[in-house]
Amino acid sequence: MRAFKNLTLAILAIAAGSAARAEQGDMGFSNSQTERTVSTFLSGIEGCAEAPPVYRVDCFQQAYAGTVRVISNASAYWEAEVALTRINRNLYSFVRANTDKSLGRERYNFRVRAVTEAALPEAQALYAQSVDQAVAIMRGGNSAEVKYFKPLADAVEASRDGLQ
After folding, report:
1. DSSP state, 51?
2. Cβ-contact 13, 38 below 8 angstroms
3. How far apart are CA 82 and CA 55, in angstroms?
4. Phi and psi of 112, rounded to 5°?
5. In the beta sheet, which residues pair with residue 9?
6. What's the pLDDT tens digit per position in 8-57?
7. In the chain, what is the straight-line distance between the N-terminal and C-terminal CA atoms, in Å?
8. Residue 112's beta-bridge partner residues?
9. What is the DSSP string of 62-118?
10. What are the CA-CA distances from residue 94 to residues 10, 24, 48, 65, 108 (Å)?
11. By the 8 A CB rule, do 67 and 44 touch?
12. What are the boundaries of the signal sequence (predicted)?
């Protein structure tokens, strides 16, 4: 839990520094949209940190779904939205295919379902691969995208090993 709080402080410091350096005039991008998106993501992921690993997969999926909702109407953030939606869908499909029906739903920031213990290594591998792809997309755009997506890419990358 302490590691997640330290991670949050580090990411918020990165986001604040990035926002302070951001140039005005980037059409469609805004510091407030970036900060709101990163804050939503971190809030969701931090709440999942307290969940046992079998529940964390669904919790992460729901954290991504909430983050996607925050940027879904900001057309300049389309590439980031697509990258995060892929992670969301991959996790959603994984949870549906590997739900442990012997365990009920629990509340950890969200009402979540458990996956089977045996599926956890596969979940971590899927998540790490999805994160790597999403971060590559967010860091591979034009200069404005790279600048405004950096705090989000950093936060997503920092969560890469969060299912362990």
Report:
1. S
2. no
3. 24
4. -125, 155
5. none
6. 555 555 555 444 434 444 468 999 999 999 999 999 999 999 999 999 99
7. 13
8. 106
9. HHHHHHHHHHTT-GGGHHHHHHHHHHHHHHHHHHHHHB-TTS--EEESEEE--B-GG
10. 30, 41, 17, 14, 19
11. yes
12. 1-22
How many residues are present in the chain?
A: 164
Residues 6 or more apart in contact with residue 65 via CB below 8 angstroms? 88, 92
Q: Which helix (H) or strand (E) holds 34?
A: helix 31-48
Handedness of CA 20, 130, 86, 112 (dihedral sign): negative
Q: Each residue of 125-158: pLDDT tens digit?
A: 999 999 999 999 999 988 999 999 999 999 999 9
Backbone φ and ψ for 31, nearest 5 degrees, come out as -60, -40
Q: Do 84 and 133 touch, CB atoms closer than 8 A?
A: no
| DSSP three-state, residue 23 | coil
Of residues 113, 82, 109, the one with CA closest to residue 97: 113
